[in-house]
Inverse folding.
């Protein structure tokens, strides 16, 4: 019998096997939509191996190597145009011109589908995915999936006035063009309901979550002289551990035993916008603060699975929830979160059943020191997450929500 579901085109700039956290959400949807009987085609900028499934299509971003500084910027009009866009309109944005061949591929797939319905699912970031959705959306119904919202609130301070204006125009264009818009946190949805009351019927919330077939688990702690707290991921745009590192340094200087037996490992790239305090690096010459550049995903998982404690950094936003939170909760060891008060991160932590402590981004030094000292006293034994967490964030169940939305749109 002919498949009655729509043919789903997933636009995901990042996709496995590339080691990028942004590929996890579209991969979960791809895996479980196919399990539910949907035909899916993935268009991605992540290079695929020779034995990749035929429904995962690599659409190379010809300029990506230049922006990642692994190749010189070509002396072409297209490269100079994207350089201008990246510098003055969407700072650091990827895939601007990549969006054009991707939209073209979407239209080709639609033509070959005959009378069968086709729905495009575009998961942002980067900017290029939204642009591809807008271009394809002139002919095909599409869904804009925001793994992160476009910059708003405190995060906008890192962008020039022109960028802020263009972000606002792009966001409005997406809400007008897309058949549905998905927020990955309720806080972002609440902002958008106030901003676009005429589009409330389009707006849906599907949180980030975990893949039940690919859950990390705590591993035995290796023999080492110091308790190890790890943060795995990028540091950017105000996401930094300064407040926690200053607190740990104060406790060490006071001779607090747990603090003196603790080291912090930051794994992943650091950008200038993270505003990491250079002085803290200089004071850590004895090894209590360590850095490692980007490592393969499996190595990052091993490091977090063997950590005594897990560090989550989201001081710049009460709305966003880093995807790594779900892996941390699966591991089950104590989590130290640097967040604003009343954040979405704390909401999840308070119900997930895993030991945690929150240091707030406006804490005075004495309050931060008390919380950190309390966290350092927690045992490192892993704890299984709560039934509530499993019910809310299981990727298979979340994909069923998406499937229902796809059927309504198609």
């Amino acid at each position: 019998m002919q498949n009655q579901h729509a043919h789903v085109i997933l636009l995901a700039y990042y996709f496995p096997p590339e080691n990028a956290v942004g590929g996890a959400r579209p991969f979960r949807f791809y895996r479980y939509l196919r399990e539910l009987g949907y035909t899916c085609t993935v268009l991605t900028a992540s290079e695929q191996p020779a034995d990749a499934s035929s429904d995962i299509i690599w659409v190379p971003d010809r300029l990506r190597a230049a922006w990642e500084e692994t190749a010189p910027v070509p002396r072409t009009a297209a490269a100079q145009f994207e350089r201008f866009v990246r510098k003055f309109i969407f700072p650091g944005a990827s895939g601007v011109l990549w969006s054009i061949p991707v939209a073209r591929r979407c239209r080709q797939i639609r033509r070959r589908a005959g009378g069968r319905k086709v729905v495009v699912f575009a998961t942002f970031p980067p900017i290029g995915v939204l642009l591809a959705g807008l271009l394809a959306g002139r002919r095909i119904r599409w869904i804009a999936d925001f793994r992160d919202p476009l910059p708003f609130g405190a995060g906008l301070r890192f962008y020039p006035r022109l960028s802020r204006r263009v972000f606002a125009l792009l966001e409005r264009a997406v809400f007008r063009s897309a058949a549905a818009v998905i927020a990955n946190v309720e806080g972002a949805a609440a902002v958008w309901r106030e901003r676009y009351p005429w589009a409330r019927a389009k707006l849906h919330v599907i949180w980030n979550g975990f893949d039940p077939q690919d859950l990390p688990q705590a591993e035995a702690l290796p023999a080492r002289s110091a308790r190890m707290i790890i943060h795995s991921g990028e540091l950017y745009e105000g996401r930094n551990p300064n407040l926690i590192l200053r607190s740990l340094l104060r406790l060490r200087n006071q001779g607090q035993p747990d603090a003196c037996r603790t080291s912090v490992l930051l794994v992943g790239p650091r950008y200038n916008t993270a505003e990491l305090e250079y002085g803290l690096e200089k004071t850590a010459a004895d090894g209590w603060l360590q850095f490692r550049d980007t490592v393969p995903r499996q190595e990052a998982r091993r490091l977090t699975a063997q950590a005594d404690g897990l560090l989550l950094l989201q001081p710049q936003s009460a709305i966003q929830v880093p995807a790594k939170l779900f892996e941390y909760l699966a591991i089950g060891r104590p989590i130290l979160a640097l967040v604003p008060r009343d954040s979405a991160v704390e909401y999840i932590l308070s119900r997930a059943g895993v030991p945690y402590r929150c240091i707030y981004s406006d804490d005075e030094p004495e309050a931060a020191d008390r919380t950190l000292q309390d966290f350092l006293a927690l045992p490192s034994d892993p704890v299984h997450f709560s039934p509530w967490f499993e019910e809310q964030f299981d990727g298979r169940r979340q994909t069923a929500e998406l499937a229902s939305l796809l059927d309504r749109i198609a």
